[in-house]
Amino acid sequence: MEGSVTLKALAGAGMPHRKIGEVILDVQNISLRFGGVKALTDISFDVREHEVRAIIGPNGAGKSSMLNCINGVYQPQQGAITFRGKTFKHMNSRQVAKMGVARTFQSLALFKGMSVLDNIMTGRNLRMKRNLLWQALRIGPAEREENEHRAVVERIIDFLEIQAWRKTPVGRLPYGLQKRVDLGRALAMEPQVLLLDEPMAGMNVEEKQDMCRFILDVNDEFGTTIVLIEHDMGVVMDISDRVVVLDYGKKIGDGTPDEVRANPEVIKAYLGTTH
Amino acid sequence: MTTTFPRLLLEHAAKRPEAPALREKEYGIWQSLAWAPLATLVRHLACGLAAAGLGRGQHIAVIGANRPRLYASMLAAQSLGAIPVPLYQDAAATEFTFPINNAEVAFAIVEDQEQVDKLVEVREQCPQLASIWYDDPRGLRNYNEPGLAALDALLAAGQAHDAANPTLFADSVAAGRPEDVAALFFTSGTTGQPKGVVHTHATLTDRAQAGASFDRLTHDEEVLAYLPPAWIGQNIFSYAQWLVCGYVVNCPESSATVTIDMKEIGPTYYFAPPSVFEGLLTSVTIRMEDASAPKRWLYQRFMDVARRIGPARMDGKAVGLADRLLYGLGNLLVYAPLRNSLGLSRVRVAYTAGEAIGPDLFTFYRSLGINLKQLYGSTETAVFVCLQPDNEVRADTVGVPIDGVEIKLADSGEILVRSAGLLKGYYKNPAATAEVLDADGWYHTGDAGFIEAGGHLKIIDRAKDVGRMADGAMFAPKYIENKLKFFPYIKEAVAFGDRRERVCVFVNIDFSAVGNWAERRNLPYAGYTDLAQKPEVYQLIGDCVEKVNADLAADERLSGSQVSRFLLLHKELDADDGELTRTNKVRRGHIGEKYRVLVDALYGGLDHQYIETQVKFEDGRSGMVAADLKIADAKTFSHARRAA
Amino acid sequence: MLYRENGQFKTSYRADLQIFPIAQDRIAIVALLAVAFVVVPLVADQYYLRAILIPFLILSLAALGLNVLVGYCGQISLGTGAFMAVGAYAAYNFFIRVDGMPMLAAVLLGGLCATAVGVVFGIPSLRIKGLYLAVATLAAQFFVDWAFLRITWFTNDAPSGSVGVRNLSVFGLPIESPVQKYLFTLTVVVVFALLVKNLVRSAIGREWMAIRDMDVAAAVIGIRPVYAKLTAFAVSSFVVGVAGALWGFIYLGSWEPAAFSIDRSFQLLFMIIIGGLGSIMGSFFGAAFIVLLPIFLDQALPALGTAVGLRLDTAFVSHVTIMIFGALIVFFLIVEPHGIARLWSTGKEKLRLWPFPH
Amino acid sequence: MGFFLETLIGGLMSGMLYSLIALGFVLIYKASGVFNFAQGAMVLFAALAMARFSEWLPSRLGIESKVLANVIAFALAFVVMIAVAWLIERLALSKLVNQEGITLLMATLGISYFLDGFGQTVFGSDIYKIDVGLPKDPIFLMESTFQGGVLVNKEDLYAALIAAALVALLTLFFQKTGTGRALRAVADDHQAAQSIGIPLNRIWVIVWSVAGFVALVAGIIWGSKLGVQFSLSLVALKALPVVILGGLTSVPGAIIGGLIIGVGEKLSEVYLGKYFGGGIEIWFAYALALVFLLVRPQGLFGEKIIDRV
Known about the structure:
The complex is a heterotetramer of chains A (275), B (644), C (358) and D (309).
Chain B lengths: L4 H11 L4 E7 L2 E6 H18 L6 E5 L4 H12 L3 E5 L5 H10 L4 E4 L2 H10 L8 E4 L13 E3 H14 L3 H8 L5 E7 L7 E6 H14 L7 E3 L7 H14 L2 E4 L6 H8 L3 E3 L2 H16 L3 H22 L6 H22 L6 E4 L6 H9 L4 E5 L9 E2 L12 E2 L3 E5 L4 E6 L5 E2 L3 H7 L6 E9 L5 E6 L4 E2 L5 E2 L1 H9 L4 E7 L6 E7 L1 H10 L6 H6 L2 H19 L9 E6 L19 H7 L1 H8 L4 E9 L5 E9 L1 E2 L5 H5 L1
Parallel strand pairs in B: 1-11, 3-4, 3-5, 5-6, 6-7, 10-11, 12-13, 13-14, 25-26
Antiparallel strand pairs in B: 1-2, 8-9, 9-19, 14-15, 15-16, 17-18, 18-20, 20-21, 22-23, 24-25, 26-29, 27-28
Helix pairs in contact in B: 1-2, 1-3, 2-3, 2-6, 4-5, 8-9, 12-13, 12-14
Chain C lengths: L12 H4 L6 H21 L2 H27 L7 H18 L5 H20 L7 H21 L12 E2 L4 E2 L2 E2 L3 H23 L2 H11 L1 H6 L4 H28 L1 E2 L6 H14 L4 H29 L5 H22 L3 H15 L5
Antiparallel strand pairs in C: 1-4, 2-3
Chain D lengths: L1 H31 L6 H23 L4 H27 L8 H23 L14 E4 L8 E4 H23 L1 H11 L1 H6 L4 H27 L8 H12 L4 H26 L4 H15 L14
Antiparallel strand pairs in D: 1-2
């Protein structure tokens, strides 16, 4: 059954673990303006398969804008983005999603009127094929499809250890758990690349540790490539393979955590802001 | 009952192949495993283990929460004549070294990464530990420990091996004999190293069967397995009796969801130590405090009704029509909904054991209409020694010896047990075995007690604490102290009387309880010492003591140890002053020394005694507390008069 | 308090995902249906059927349709009346122009026409949001009012667009007496309620709610706003259109555009606000409330008036009635934005947890 | 040609009145982000108040002078409108702050129902007339230019002039007075406005009062034209497309939009109506606005919206 196939994918079968692979996502000379305001200026960097890639920078450095360009929320005025060899002037959200790029949000962007289960289920919608009529009748194939995807979603709920809240409306959950659900919704898309926008913002130490564990587990278990935004340098440095540093919409550093730590410009930017 | 667990499994698989054997809530629904598929699973696991070299008589550690595949692994091991050794999953890594080495364990099947990590940690000290299989591969993808593999791999290997040797499984099950060792349970000894209790298929199945027939258990029971399988209590209920009766064992989704799962399953046969019941009650009280005033009123009102009528009803005694209607109403409004939200609606039989349960706690559940009963037994006796028959349930006894059990009282008052369910001995520890098993096959429980009129066994104390009065009457200080402490006004009590002609008691009042009582009577007081010395308070406590005496008098063995005199201490007994152990048990001897003047005053017949005591305050400073303590006589009863 | 859920464990997703997972609820709903289908026809007299139950059912259906759009997809519409009108007049045309056209088919075809119109007027929703969209739907309202009044072809050249139908039947069974009409309507409503419920608890329903709750996030996980919104418009106006057709055929028998004026649109909007946005049950609650309140006030107010010794004419009563409606809308929006349905579900939760508060 | 001019002027004049009501919308939307569906109901309510007061004053208090009666009635009606504004703020808006636009819209729908019902309960529901002495006789312009000249209804002319004056007045009020500036500040950014100590609630009361005043004037003009009756509250529906066209947040937008709609309506009715069987002005305005929306979702002068993630 189709469900079991996707389960395999989830379990990362045949994913050679942590073998950093070829460049999967390549960002070339992206520039983005709102009216007169320059949000991003000529940003370029690449992401290799299976790696954990961090984008750090002080608040307002343009980190989120960068993600928004990658998954087509914003249309950059200049530059191009190459994903698995295909180059795009600017991305279209649905296309990006289809190509296997998922994303979580800095400010919680869950569907507050829906339960944890339904929120994560929405992540499966791209893969649900039955048309309106089938869904209205909800018999045979339609029901089977629904159940198969429910099965996958349950794997994710299990993975994120939120079984106890499955049927709870997300609005009622504490912040830390909502962040997990957000991650779950992204995972439900079985992404090849996962964009995380400050996954640990506003969390206490404990929650941060949990989140770190989940992120690493995702990378381990499913071989998912991870692009991670943080403005808190400390957390990122331990978990990421390579780091891009943005400041005022410009790239001021790129390399392994150690290289970046050593980079004088980065130090300046961070001494300038208290982080 | 002469069979083995693997044979029982195969019988069920043959008789009721489709019927569910195990249910586990996983991925949001209750996934059932029927008897036939379970048998196949066990068969393949067994073949896998055989291929891996597990042989007859060898030990294999099983570590993890209640998971179907772990239970299956135990069965698989037993099918090969090997001996599963369940270990506590929440134990620290270092606690594993002794049992693993003691039972020279070379194989282990564990639940998940957490357990694997612990075993890997102790591998230095346990070189013989060759292979470890894990049920849940999460996080273990890049471990490259030698001999570490997933249970799935074992399963696959097993299928291959089974195909190659189709008769292997059947043969080795057939070769198993009831008197073979079935399992090894390590009891965490209070002192020294843990001891491995050896049980055979015969001992376990015999007791399981006896217990089952006592409560007429059928294969329709639903059981929720949520306590550590390494504890014989859980093991007998969710393994031995499971295979004997063929009912369904349900495994919760995760430790965080037990209450939810309990509510969904609604077990019909339930077992828990008093602590669990206490926790439940606490949660009920707390949640009720947040309830709206009318609800709280309703609850209080009907819980009173329940306490009045419930127990009698449960014991099948006749209850007046008005009361029956009232209780029915309460049942509709409070009891039934409460049972529902506790997940106890469908309970037919529930047991508590392990330690003494407070009468209030006990009656709370009884009065709700839950058939909660007590049983007496231990790891060494394969649990079932005494059980309370329906309608003969009392808070202060542990029931009647069930069939197959002989009970004898040693002169010391210690309870001796003989049954087909006794341990074969402690593993590689003949000395310890000799201590508890005598030549005629009596097991020395270490508990002191006696058979009451009506044949109910009554546990009064640990045997070593029981003393003798000057006139030779039995003196069980802890028993008396506990009886006193069941009163809310009494926080601590210390009873003296060993080798004396009468019993005298120090009492610590419960400051808050007695304080409230005093305020309700607007009785002014200046602090603990002052309150304790109020004549009214002496009256109050005197009544409690009198009640206890009345109880004691009811029993000819104990009527001799009624409390004749008592005093209220001027300070609370405190661990900082060395009067209590860190676990808040009274250090009787030490207190007797420290307050010798008071003891002498009690026995010297004085009616008051001045005393000064040094105390340590919270901030570490120390100071003196001085008071002139009154000493009161308590009303005692003669046994005959109560009997009449 | 009435719930006993121990032992109601689910061993399949099918069981877990059913509409009423709790046995007690299933019993209740079956009982309710039994009463509606069997007892009511036996006991209820003509007046109640004709003046209360039938309009209640049809308006519930319309509210249900509107709820899909407003409650589930978050797209406001003030043009519901128009879509009802399209349904009614289209059905009328199919019914009288195509001879031998079965009534049921005509009604459904009417719904389809409403769908088409709905989608057309839904197109603006792709570019414009919220308030602006409200105006767009108003446009539909006015245009349609005008069209059926002035374009006589739609009304088979009837003056001022007043048309009528008679001798209705379904599968050979006559639909003439109130009881027959009631049973027919009830059946249609129940079927539609079930279908809509299935939709909102399936993929498409989740897409609608996703768009409603957080459209950017929805887009990022690959949901097409265009598709989601247009399907919402389509489904919504189909149901509304069918309701319109029933309103004309079953309830009124003969009607004119005024029957589907802007007031109807507002009335339906009020139903779902008071009943509960984004709730199937809410649509029924709201309809019941808004159908019953005027009837109640018509009785109560004059009685009250005479009690305090003044005669209240019907005009006064009707004014007070709309006043109360207005006040109630504001009240619900402030106090319980999710309407009666939410009150209901909270009450149910309390019963499940009884005697505990949480 | 003359006929065309006639229609054009007629359009401009009724357009002026649309802008007047549209102005009411814009004011409130700018200041409190509420799309005030109740504007029409306010017009009706105000007109009713005015009509009844000007009728009661002579009859009950025996005030002879018609002018005086009208003036007092006007003052009273204005007071009533202020009261209404205050009540709306107190009872509804203050409890709905930070709700989505749609919720607020629905709330004002409720309010408009309430006002309709309330007004007719208190003031009665017959047709009343307002006579503030607007001359009804027609005048002819530019008779020299074309034969027969261009017929203009004097009443409309005055109405248009009054409307224009009021619009000008309000614009001034916004630009010059402190309150006006405060209003603009609030419109731009609620938090900021509050942080610099502008009392939101008071501002809202003021705005709603102003809107009430506008409604009153509009009510009087329309009322004296068509008579005061329930249909007045539908006038607002006419003004909706105007707002959309002009852009919800722009005062000039409201004015220009009003004129466009007014003219477009008349011309379309005259020149296209016959092909459609007449009566198309009911929806023409909407069609116009809608087509326009598709091209420019934020309206003529509205600001563009970017949603951030």
